[in-house]
Amino acid sequence: ERARPLFSFATSRSSASGVPAGFRPPPRRVVVTGGAGFVGSHLVDRLLEQGDSVIVVDNFFTGRKENVAHHLRNPRFELLRHDVVEPILLEVDRIYHLACPASPVHYKYNPIKTIISFLSRICSYFCDLRVRSCYDEGKRTAETLTMDYHRGGGVEVRIARIFNTYGPRMCLDDGRVVSNFVAQALRRQPMTVYGDGKQTRSFQYVSDLVAGLMALMEGDHIGPFNLGNPGEFSMLELAQVVKETIDPMASIEFKPNTADDPHMRKPDITKAKQLLRWEPKVSLREGLPLMVKDFRQRILDE
Ligand code: NAD
Ligand code: UDP
């Protein structure tokens, strides 16, 4: 049997000549898979704000209806409970494909499915076949498939490699370092530092990522583009920033690290800066309090 595409496109709006004065084009129809998740829901906010019509396709594996509940009465917004491994026919102008469990806790739950859903990220550079490989291989395969659809099927595509991103609406207990430290400090538990805490990461605030994804989508370049914040922090430095932001009495507890933990992960965003004219604007010290406010409320509601 021939593989059926997951989405069918039909770009219905050809540009008309002799457009009458005062004519306003109908809103663009945009699909966001994974739109009830952390990154997706912030993207949906911005797309609706700029006048697009948005269809969210999500199976709520890690996403939450609460993340998009504020749009349910908006006539330009639709929410579909659907699993993207099943085909769906939608007439749309743009697809942002973000559906994929992003945290190790979740993507190891169903590795085969994780390989099927995709959106590229930095992990596609690594090539080990250990626990993380369902995710990394999935992203790598996705990039290849995306380019095949482009070359063979004439589909216009864009590819982003997303680096560590944080902000409001992140899953509380997904095991990522920023959400762990913030939730632990708010619950007055020690922050768990794996290994010696000298490994570094670069943390991007979610609004910067959303701006990057939108610039990429509307620009002329396919990519792949690295989207991340090059500011580098060791886990000990991150714990210190969390401590200053939440609780000066917060403590640290060292835990053993896994052998395959990268020592450093920092994006080179030269290409995105030059070709998309995009760069992150929000520093960790500016972004963290915005996330803490959301986490504090959700932890109080538990
Ligand atoms: P998230 O878990 O909050 O969002 C993923 C969304 O996809 C959820 O709403 C989930 O329910 C949905 N989903 C998962 N599998 C699905 C399926 N089969 N069908 C339909 N919906 C499905 O994660 P996120 O942090 O918002 O990540 C979004 C994307 O960005 C993912 O592709 C992720 O791999 C990528 N990414 C995120 C980060 C990060 O730091 N947050 C880093 C690199 C890449
Ligand atoms: N980490 C940590 N404590 C935690 C969770 C993670 O010290 O409670 C470390 C982890 O070992 C890694 C870094 O934080 O070195 C980033 O981990 P995360 O899973 O957030 O992102 P990734 O490793 O995918 O970049």
Automatic annotation (TrEMBL):
Its cofactor is NAD(+). GO terms for cellular component: cytoplasm. It comes from the Eukaryota. One of its GO terms (biological process) is UDP-D-xylose biosynthetic process. It is an enzyme of class 4 (lyase). GO terms for molecular function: NAD+ binding; UDP-glucuronate decarboxylase activity. Keywords: Decarboxylase, Lyase, Membrane, NAD, Transmembrane, Transmembrane helix. Catalyzes the NAD-dependent decarboxylation of UDP-glucuronic acid to UDP-xylose. Necessary for the biosynthesis of the core tetrasaccharide in glycosaminoglycan biosynthesis. This is UDP-glucuronate decarboxylase. It comes from Leersia perrieri. The chain holds residues 77 to 378 of 378 of the full protein.
